[in-house]
Design brief:
This protein has 9 helices and 6 strands; from the N terminus they run E-H-H-E-H-H-E-H-E-H-E-H-E-H-H. With about 180 residues, it is of the alpha/beta class. The protein has one domain: Isochorismatase-like (Rossmann fold, 3-Layer(aba) Sandwich), CATH 3.40.50.850. Strands 3-2-1-4-5-6 form a 6-stranded parallel beta sheet.
Length: about 180
């Protein structure tokens, strides 16, 4: 079960023209905004990644606006975020073992990141409504591969309410409004 003091959100490569080619892109983008906003309400650490932005473009504006006030993206060339020493150092520094994983493409960068995190002993919670690929089939293949490797499938609402644990307080009210 996700716990506030053990969890962190990882955002993988939601950027450039490639993002506009994702299956059901408008819903995917809206879901990413909800998940990131929810993580910010809950004050979770967020690790933001970009794959070769000089070639693929920057993070889409909807997400960049949410993150750029407090964070800068970690630039990577490896498909897995774990291939980036900056990512691994920041991950180690935040001392969180539960990783809430989001981004694109499900069957490539998200999958390889999940696999490497699992092999390193992290718990991976894959937010299935916050991942996408160019085709639905590739998204499904990626999700299945991550589950077979040991990732736990979750959704925005499941993850956020699991982290809240109780239906009271200002954070609960903000999360309830966010997911309506």
């Amino acid at each position: 079960m996700l716990k506030l003091d053990k969890a962190a959100l990882v955002v993988v490569d939601v950027q450039g023209k490639l993002a506009t080619l994702m299956h059901d892109k408008d819903q995917f983008f809206a879901n990413m905004v909800k998940m990131i906003t929810g993580a910010q309400i809950l004050e979770l650490p967020i690790l933001w990644n970009e794959q070769l932005p000089d070639k693929l473009g920057e993070t889409i504006p909807e997400i960049k606006e949410l993150l750029s006030d407090k964070l800068s993206p970690m630039i990577k060339s490896s498909f897995s975020c774990c291939g980036n020493s900056d990512f691994m150092a920041k991950l180690g520094n935040i001392n969180r073992r539960q990783i809430i994983l989001t981004g694109m493409e499900t069957h490539i960068c998200v999958y390889q990141t999940a696999r490497d995190l699992l092999m390193a002993g992290y718990e991976v919670y894959l937010v299935t409504d916050c991942v996408s690929s160019r085709t639905l089939e590739n998204k499904q293949v990626g999700i299945k591969a991550m589950q077979n490797a040991g990732a736990k499938a979750t959704s925005i609402e499941t993850a956020l309410f699991e982290l809240l644990e109780i239906a009271e307080g200002e954070k609960f009210k903000k999360i309830a409004r966010l997911v309506k």
